[in-house]
Amino acid sequence: MVTLLKVEDLDVKAPRRVALPKMPKIAVWLAAFWLATLLFVAVFASWLPIAPFDQPNFDAARQGPSFSLHEPLGRDGLGQSILSRLIYGAQISLAVGFLSVAFGLVFGVTLGIVAGYFGGWIDTVIGVFTDTLLSIPPLVLLLALAVTLSPSLGNLVISLGLLGLPTFLRIARANTLSIAKREYVAASAILGAKRSRILLREILPNVITPPLAYSIEIVGVFIVAEASLSFLGLGIPPPRPSWGGMIAEGMSDMGRSVHIVAGPVVVLFLTVLALKIVGDRFRERLDVRERVL
Amino acid sequence: MSADERVPLLEVEHLTTRFATDRGQLTAVDDVSLTLDRGEMLGIVGESGSGKSVLARTLMNIAGANSSVTPQTRIRFEGRDLRNLSKEETKHFWGKEIAMIFQNPMTSLNPVRQISRQLTEPMRYHLGLSKREAQDRAVELLRLVGISSPGHRMSQYPHQLSGGMRQRVMIAIALSCEPKLLVADEPTTALDVTVQKQILDLLAKLQDDLGMAMILITHDLGVVAGRAHRIAVMYAGQVMEESTTKHLFEATSHPYTESLLKAIPRLSQPSHTRLAASSGALPDLVNVIDQCRFVGRCPLVEDICTATMPKMASHRPGHSVRCYLPLTPATVPSGTNEDVAEPEKLNQSDRSH
Amino acid sequence: MAGTGTAQLRERDKVLLRVEDLVVEFPVGRREVAHAVSGISFDVAKGETLGLVGESGCGKSTTGRAILQYPRPKSGSVRFEGEELTTLRANDLRARRLRLQMIFQDPTSSLNPRRKAGRLVAEGLEIWGGRTKTEVEERVNELLTSVGLDPDAVRERRPHQFSGGQCQRLSIARALALDPELIVCDEPVSALDVSVQAQILNLLEDLKKKFGVTLLFISHDLSVVKNISDRVMVMYLGKVCEIGSTETVFASPSHPYTQALFASVPEPDPDVDPTQAPTLGGELPSPITPPSGCRFRTRCPLATERCIQEEPQVREVAADHFVACHHAGMSLEDAEEIPLKAAESPTPAAT
User: What does pTM read for this prediction?
Assistant: First the structure.
């Protein structure tokens, strides 16, 4: 088999950078496994043989944590199943995490490409919009939105999405500026391509990779953000459980009922860590492909 | 003649540089031997992938962290073994005894430092000059390389100068410690042709004035034709032909050199002259096969060429060739072997795999 | 600002492309403007190859793109097949793109790295439609073969798997797909090795004969331009210096800049001493504040007072040989010295 040797490869110029130690493969597999499990139980929660999340059992509560085979994680102050609440809470966390990132990604990248490609006053207006969003402290923005809008999943997604949007926008805009100058874009226009074709087929595929690479890690960030809001009582209202809310509930009585707090804390930690590990690997793989291209 | 003058300035023997790559050890420079005398100019000519830049960097000890040189490699400068310099000697050798200038002046000059800093630094480090002394000398150097209003230029930054001026600054920096040898790696490739002539004339003049030897690396045979004393032609990491300039052009012995000369369009030819183009890809330098590296493109391949690698042999006095069948006036191929099909189709020369 | 004149233009209906008084400017920073091309005129006959030669900053690449209206020039006329392109509406201009194509300097960055070679070459065909899938595939195979690539080996590969020369062949195939009348070649061989360069030049000559395509060949390399062009135009800082048939311009260059340019080309001939040839001193002036009168006067050994005040117009000095110089025909060797004029004021004293 003939190998087409690229002559440029032979003139090695820069010394090879020392690579950072790679994440052991086992860690990536475990992380992926955790996320897959979480996703599975969250999606199929209603079909799982667990107690409903809003079934108080005051008798059981009076007896303490009441760990049992049936309830391996015990019950909370109201006697509700912690395991169930964690699983249903996962639904909220994952939904908010992924949807808000999707929101930020879709709108951020679109606006970024538009700003970068068209320039002029369009770029200026979008720039003002972005700078405004960025200049408001995130917590203040979230609080303001939480107070003014009714706390629903949709509003939460939009609020967090708006927070993430500027980052994606800026990355997309910067990439668009550099890609729009490339000769293959000019070639496309000279061949007679309409603007829409150029934007969709030449610019978008080459611009979307870096934001996409970061998106998985950002999901972790937003899950923590959602938990924080719920912790402050500004997230999804009860009886829907959420990890942050559960931490808030259990906090007042930490001495006696540390298990109420431990559950959501550990799950939150594992999920964000797993997202970071998988996100890193995802980014590495995309980088390698980019470098080849 | 003192003993000093009998010893060549630079002696390179069996220089082989390898790089560690994902696919294995890549032999970028293979068994290169050269000598250079004081005040001489040696031209090293090669296309991309020939290894000429890696050769220069190996001489300057900046080939890169993942490079390695074989034990048979010998580099001697004024009789001293460069592979075995003491730590003290190393500090004040490169940049002082041998200096280098590069192709792209924009990336070779530090964009955030003033010209004066970049000029005075080597002098203060290697020659121990004081700040004042170094600056005075720097202004002199700028004048020497033909930069107008040198005092003014000292406080400027690289982006405020044109490409030609930046190259002159780089030459000034290289000459600041009066090196005995200047290695110039494609110094004018990125410049306009009129500026190129200015810079090449300048280098020739400085060479004369300072009695400096020079190695001029280029892909353009025209650049070395009227300026170099000797020329070495490289291909796929090896020197294929080495001789005096006159003999290289008038008694071309290696088929590769011949193909290069035939492929260059010239002002002296009428327009629409058909150029002799040869096709074929470079051989794999990781899985090196023991045969002539040029078999993929050579119009005169015979069985012996694929049997073992030819060694550099003296073809005439002062003229060495790495070929079993060096060209004589009778054997110079008249046609071209232009094969419009791409390597995938050249099954008969697929032997490099 | 006056252009360099139009004496060199031939009859309107005899030429395929006619450019008159082309002006292209680029904004620099907030207030300033770079005068990249300032009033040039030339034409190209059908089947002809016009070489555009000059050093960096002369405006040759800008001219190439301005002809394609990418972007539209500031002013001037570009008549292609008798039709004025500068005033066409966007949609009509797009339709004309079928007949005017371009190939670029950097072989790898002119091809979308994510596309396979087959799709890249077919891009024009896909944009304009009207063919079935098989027809497109056949045409792509035809094109790949005519540029010397094996369709089966090449179709499924991506640009990074090809060498520079092969990428350039793909670019050429892509440009030919729509059967254009005129192809603007912007330094197509500058990034290639000598041996590959020769292959591509030969390929272009073959394709010219086979498809009858007209070329505007832009390059800084004089030998390459001489090899491929029927006529040649030398530019400096946005102006035409000299234009005419390749034979006459190269045999007897009349503009001092052309002479200096030719003298600077290093010939691969060991008997030629390059230090004997005249060297052009000085630096290229800024295109933001170009010199008044003749733009070359700040480096020209033949410059006189008239050159500061009056811009030279192109005039005929021989059959199909036009020069824009007050001292056209004088040799550089006649000059007494190569000056480095101290008072290089780009603007004239108040008159």
Answer: 0.84
Better-scored residue on pLDDT, A249 or A96? A96
pLDDT, one tens digit per residue, over B185-218 is 999 988 889 989 999 999 999 999 999 999 999 9
* Res. A18 pLDDT band, cuts 50 70 90: low
CA A205 to chain CA mean position, Å: 21
* Residue C115 near residue A205 (C-beta atoms within 8 A): no
Question: Are the beta carbons of B75 and B15 closer than 8 angstroms?
Answer: yes
Nearest to B131 by CA among B162, B147, B154: B154
Whether the pLDDT of residue A15 is over 90: the answer is no
Query: What sign results for the dihedral spanned by CA atoms B154, B157, B161, B167?
Result: positive
Q: Is the pLDDT of residue A67 over 80?
A: no
CB-based contact B53 A11, cutoff 8 Å: yes
**Using omega within 30 degrees of 0 as the cis cutoff, is the peptide bond preceding A239 cis?**
yes
Joined together, the tokens standing for residue B280 give: 């074929």
**Contact at CB, B282 and A2, closer than 8 angstroms:** no
Q: Say how far apart CA B131 and CA B136 lie, in whole Å.
A: 9
3-state class of C93 per DSSP?
A: helix
Helix axes B163-175 and B131-144, enclosed angle (nearest 10): 130
The bridge status of strand B80-81 relative to strand B24-36 is unpaired
Arithmetic mean of pLDDT over chain B: 86
- The per-residue pLDDT for B120 is 92
- Note the pLDDT of residue B335: 47
Neighbours of A52 (CB within 10 A): 13
What's at B251, amino acid-wise?
A: A
Name chain B contacts of A4, Cβ cutoff 8 Å.
Answer: 281, 343
Answer with the residue of higher pLDDT: B350 or B175: B175
Enumerate residues 6+ apart whose C-beta is below 8 A from A279: A213, A214, A215, A216, A217, A219, A220
Indicate whether A51 pLDDT > 60.
yes
Q: Is B242 helix (H, G, I), strand (E, B) or coil?
A: strand
**B48: closest CA of chain C, how far (Å):** 7
Burial of A197 (0-12, 13-18, 19+ CB in 10 A): middle
* pLDDT above 50 (res A1): no
| pLDDT of the residue at C340 | 37
- Which of A3, A12, A13, A288 has the highest number of chain B CBs within 10 A, making it the mutation to test binding with B? A12
Give ipTM to 2 decimals. Answer: 0.85
Chain pair B-C, CB pairs under 8 angstroms: 158
CB of B221 within 8 Å of a chain C CB? The answer is yes
- CATH topology for C1-46+54-81+218-266+284-351 is Rossmann fold (3.40.50)
Please, are residues A234 and A146 in contact by the beta-carbon 8 Å criterion? yes
The pLDDT of residue A22 is 64
3-state secondary structure of A284: helix
Q: What is the mean pLDDT of residues B320-340?
A: 68
Pairing relationship of beta strands C75-80 and C83-84 according to DSSP bridges? antiparallel
> Residue A270 pLDDT more than 70?
yes
- For residue C83, what are the β-bridge partners? C80
| Mutate which: A1, A2, A291, A292, vs B, most B CBs within 10 A | A2
Does A136 or A62 have the greater pLDDT score? A136
Please, which contacts does A124-131 make with residues 24 or more away whose CB atoms are closer than 8 Å? A126/A169, A130/A165, A130/A166, A130/A169, A130/A170
B276 SS3 class: coil
Angstrom distance (rounded) from CA A281 to CA A216: 10
DSSP one-letter code for B275: P
The end-to-end CA distance of chain C, in Å, is 16
DSSP secondary structure letters along C155-188: TT--GGGS-HHHHHHHHHHHHHTT--SEEEEEST
Q: Is C59 helix (H, G, I), strand (E, B) or coil?
A: coil
**B350 close contact with C: CB closer than 8 A:** no
